[in-house]
Amino acid sequence: MMYKTILALALSLSCLALRSGAAMAEEPISPIKPPARVHLGMVELGKKLYFDPRLSKSGFISCNSCHNLSMGGTDNLPTSIGDRWQEGPINAPTVLNSSLNIAQFWDGRAADLQAQAGGPIANPKEMGFSHTLAVQTLETIPEYAREFRQIFGKDSISIEQVTEAIAEFEKTLVTPNARFDQWLLGKADALTEQEREGYALFKNSGCVACHNGEAAGGNSFQKMGLIEPYQTKNGAEGRAAVTGKDAERFNFKVPTLRNVELTYPYFHDGAVNTLTEAVDIMGRLQLGRRFTPEENAKIVAFLKTLTGEQPRFNLPILPPSADNTPRPIPFGQ
């Protein structure tokens, strides 16, 4: 009798899982999954490098400066502050769930996380250093030299090792278990009526044509200002700057909507501070639709359900510099 009861329960759970899976298959957005496989030692090294400001000329700027993991993986500024307080050219996209992107940077000029990680270090407007000087600095720090040797099995450090370790850490920065994910997985009361209606509007209005998949975006390039031109003082040209094709001017990587409540200001120029304004602009410029205040509020309510569990870990204790480690140049002497 007990065997039959257990079998019946197992069959019931299996059917529920199948129904949930079938329902998810019909949805354009899918739940965030944890990273499938990472090198734990490399992750720990990459975490240190991510937070280490000695990869910058000033000794003040780290990856976390512009992609702050306490602030949704960004800096909540229109454009970031770089070496010697220089103004960055474009809004810093979130690092959270960036492993799900089709490419990195707004214009997609970096194919993957490793290619992206080296860019800011050598950018004179960002970290203001060079790859050679960054590597030389790390090689003078005994704990880093030992850790790189243990992980990569080589006596010298290369920029490729540095960027690979940072990328491996960034792969872990996913945000699963948002309330929307719980709803997708069958928890009917995870969303309120207003939030469900907002999602229906989001789908039926056509937003999901670009904002789909695990990250609800990040997997295509689209023109900003499809129906009406987007008015901006920002000079970024989008994909055209990479491909040289005029047809791709103002085509930008579609940003992820995961954790979008945390990643203001919005758009590549960081000119929009609120989700309400962003929804209004995207409706008019991309869809040719003017949402009523009530419709807008419903969509905003839905977007806030995409905030997932933020990465949690102990802050790394960075190894001390040695006597011969180059000292920072914070004021550009």
Strands, helices and their partners?
Layout (H helix, E strand, L loop, with lengths): L1 H24 L14 H12 L11 H4 L46 H10 L8 H9 L2 H11 L6 H12 L8 H6 L8 H12 L16 E3 L16 H4 L7 E3 L21 H13 L5 H12 L29
Antiparallel strand pairs: 1-2
Helix pairs in contact: 2-7, 4-7, 9-12, 11-12
What is the residue-averaged pLDDT?
A: 93
What percent strand?
under 5%
Query: What's the CATH H-level homologous superfamily of the largest domain?
Result: Cytochrome c-like domain
Terminal Cα span: 83 Å
> In total, how many domains does the architecture comprise?
2
The beta-strand count equals 2
Taking pLDDT < 50 over at least 5 consecutive residues as the criterion, the unreliable ranges are 1-22
N to C succession of SSEs: HHHHHHHHHEHEHH
Put simply, the count of helices is 12
Helix content: 25-40%
Assembly context of the chains: single chain
Radius of gyration: 22 Å
Quick take:
The protein has 333 residues and is mainly alpha-helical.
Descriptive account of the structure:
The chain folds into 2 domains: 132 residues, Cytochrome c-like domain (Cytochrome Bc1 Complex, Chain D, domain 2), CATH 1.10.760.10; 128 residues, Cytochrome c-like domain (Cytochrome Bc1 Complex, Chain D, domain 2, Orthogonal Bundle), CATH 1.10.760.10. The longest helix is centred in the first third of the chain and has 24 residues. The protein has 12 helices and 2 strands. With 333 residues, it is mostly helical. The chain has a two-stranded antiparallel sheet. Helix content is 39%, strand content 2%.
